[in-house]
Design goal:
53% helix, alpha/beta, binds NADP nicotinamide-adenine-dinucleotide phosphate, single chain, Rossmann fold, seven-stranded parallel beta sheet, 11% strand
């Protein structure tokens, strides 16, 4: 495997950081990318602890020039690209009456168009290598959840995009998978920049269900969040399994949760389940 090259987006923390270290440990030449290379301290420290070497490069998924430069630079320097792991993403909490359409667009920019941009840049090289396209989506890419309209819309969009691309890319030798985590204890929640008190104060008629949603989510993270190392195991499974599934969940909880939707033809089970979050 040592000649095999994987590029991962969003490796400054969390699942991307752990997946980069695990891929290098599994023998892959690993290009760990970040939008701000000055934030590579935790990544470098984790690589040192694991005794692995990473090729760390700049890549902002919302900046087309940066995406092209990173992907073409990797192919120029390593001669090939065998896998892309679209991991970069950012959460968002809100509901449409209390935010602007531009807020929603920004969420789509990072979580959807960022994936589209990076995928487009990588595909010719993945076709050349008979490689793999792996995208970290979310259980929120299958089940819409309260106050996650924009985030879930973006992750649904990614799932629809990849589910549509999978059979086409498969015909040309590229395997496509999505990885669906549930709650994972990373910087994800902090990076949303959520101030629950301010959010509630501005929520108007939505304050009561929002309060219930926030309390339930905080409880779920405290009780049952996976570690990013655990979630990264499934990413590496998608990278290394002989024939990875299209859809992989990172935990038994994520499997059960998405099964609610995937067996729910009329959508009633999901709406009853998530409606229950709101009391
Ligand atoms: P995280 O620790 O916040 O990591 C997210 C990574 O994405 C960071 O490295 C961040 O970089 C990067 N990123 C954000 N915007 C970017 C951009 N424009 N260009 C390049 N990189 C960018 O959270 P995580 O939990 O590991 O998230 C990884 C993936 O898992 C995301 O796609 C997320 O949606 C998904 N996920 C997470 C959870 C969860 O509970 N944690 C659950 C389901 C799905 P900066 O440091 O520069 O911000």
């Amino acid at each position: 495997m040592s000649s095999h090259t994987v590029l991962i987006t969003g490796t400054s923390s969390g699942i991307g950081l752990e997946a980069a270290v695990a891929a290098a440990r599994a023998g892959w030449t690993t290009i760990a990318t970040l939008r701000d290379p000055e934030r590579a301290g935790a990544l470098r420290a984790a690589a040192d602890r694991a005794g692995v070497t990473l090729d760390i490069r700049q890549l902002d998924v919302t900046d087309p020039a940066s995406v092209t430069a990173a992907v073409e630079g990797v192919v120029a320097d390593h001669g090939r690209l065998d896998a892309l792991i679209n991991n970069a993403g950012a959460g968002h909490v809100g509901t449409i009456e209390n935010e602007t359409v531009d807020d929603v667009r920004r969420v789509m920019e990072v979580n959807f168009f960022g994936v589209v941009q990076t995928t487009k840049a990588a595909l010719p090289h993945l076709r050349a290598s008979g490689g793999r396209l792996i995208t970290v989506t979310s259980v929120g890419g299958v089940v819409g959840q309260p106050f996650n309209e924009a985030y879930c819309a973006a992750k649904f969009a990614v799932e629809g995009f990849m589910e549509s691309l999978a059979p086409v890319a498969g015909k040309l030798g590229v395997s496509v998978s999505v990885v669906e985590p549930g709650a994972v204890a990373t910087e994800f929640v902090n990076n949303i920049g959520l101030d629950p008190e301010r959010l509630l104060a501005a929520a108007g008629d939505y304050a009561e269900p929002l309060q219930k949603y926030v309390a339930r989510t905080q409880g779920q993270f405290a009780r049952s969040a996976q570690t990013p190392e655990q979630a990264a195991v499934t990413v590496i499974e998608a990278l290394t399994a002989e024939r990875p599934a299209f859809r992989l969940q990172t935990s038994a909880w994520a499997l059960a949760f998405t099964a609610t939707k995937l067996a729910d033809n009329d959508g009633s089970a999901v709406v009853a389940l998530t409606g229950g979050y709101l009391g």
